[in-house]
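Lab notes, practical 5.
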Amino acid sequence: MILMKPRFFIISAISATFLFIACKKSADNNPNPDPVAAVLNLPATPFNYANITQPAYLNAPNILGQINTPPGNPITDNGATLGRVLFYDKNLSINNTIACASCHKQANAFSDPDAKSLGFNGGLTGRNSMSLIDAKYYPNGRFFWDQRAATLEDQTLAPIQDLVEMGMTLPQLETKLKNLAYYPSLFTKAFGDATITSNRVSLALSQYVRSIVSFQSKYDAGRSTFPAAPAPPPNVNFPNFTAQENRGKEIFLTPQNACAACHGSETFTAPQEKNNGLDLVTIDRGFGSVVNNTNLDATFKVTTLRNVELTAPYMHDGRFTTLEQVVEHYSSGVKNHPNLSPQLRLPGGQPRLANLTAADKAALVAFLKTLTDVTILTDVKYSNPFK
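Output from the prediction step:
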């Protein structure tokens, strides 16, 4: 027994040493998991949202003058990162089934391929979900088809509280997000501390949405051969365009066809609401209802045409399923609504009809397709970050 005792202690000491090393190795391999990394695929250094390099013509004074970013909410990389997470998080709906991205799908240029979108309880929205691309370039800064939201910051919280769309109250939203372990550090990076408020949710979502800009289409490649502003005259061809696409560009930009009158800048949007003669009488009051002004009945926000090839169905009610139908409307179908916008009215008061030939209609559609920017459809910094 006396001889065995030292051996026993030696063996015990060795065993304890191995146990310590094994436990340490186990601890090193299984540290307390990062709550962000556990559920999100985010880069160690945030993506660039704040200082995206765009072509020179998109930095011209008239384009910069369209930007609706308020002084108190500039885009930051960490703020837009938080906004991206919130945008794709189904926890923003009452039953965890609907996210902002449910109705604004990246593959469809952040629009919905259905005429009306599905809410958390199976209900349908009142209007089509428009594309969010180039949202920051709508000059008057109002949002929704009827422009009932005075700012993008107001707009971002409305679907969350809508009884059809996401069904939450703002207190419920705040409580829910505070109980999700991945948000405190994201809010800290975005705002300097971990305080979670609905106002900060609004600010982050707005930063993310305003960061979604398009400038890598076939049109942009052609436009870049004429880097100065303004754009060259309608009859100046882009070298990378087909003859049909150049003809379509000419039709689009020719004043008497009125396309560019409402979609005239390089962002292909308009400064205010319009009535484009969809109906002879008012069916949906649109902005007129918001401001209680019958002279603005049936007027709606003019969305960008960038990526329009991918945002069907078209118009506020999704009535047109193809670009060909849209072009035909402006060629032969504009109705003489009392509030028809001046751009679509002849001097004598009748609707302005483009009366295009079959070849010119096809050319106009071909031009509209040059506005498609496929890179934005797969860009990871705009994609779903959840694992």
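Observations recorded by the TA: Residues 121 and 164 are 7 Å apart (CA to CA). Residues 4-29 form the longest helix (26 residues).
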